[in-house]
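Render HSP20 type chaperone in 3D.
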Amino acid sequence: MSRLVETGRSALRNVLERVGRGWGRVQERRPLSTDLLESDDAYLVVFDAPGVRGEDVDVTFLDRTVEVNLERFRDFYDGYDLVFPGRGVSLSGSVDLPQDADVTPEGANATLTRNGTLHVEIPKRGGSADVDVVEEDD
């Protein structure tokens, strides 16, 4: 009887792992959730970026499009085995600013907040460049 129980547990664990990996791949194909805000002086793009460190974020601004690529890693916990690997590790997203946006990459900044959002601020006035990412201190 215990052999049957162990076989069932093994089969269930195998199914959960496959479903989890599939769900992670779905997350990686789906763009990051975003908000686009505008003030008199700048545009602010807010991306959901949970579980990411500043050095694992790449922000690019080109032709009124803000592109973000994130690489996050799974922490290992002593005494625990990963059963359901459901979080995607390579995430990306982009936002197109309005066609009439006159913005400049000079002075653009990106801040990774402690609550897992990435704020990308682009001043108004024209151009293209990479954007530096700053991580909030605890």
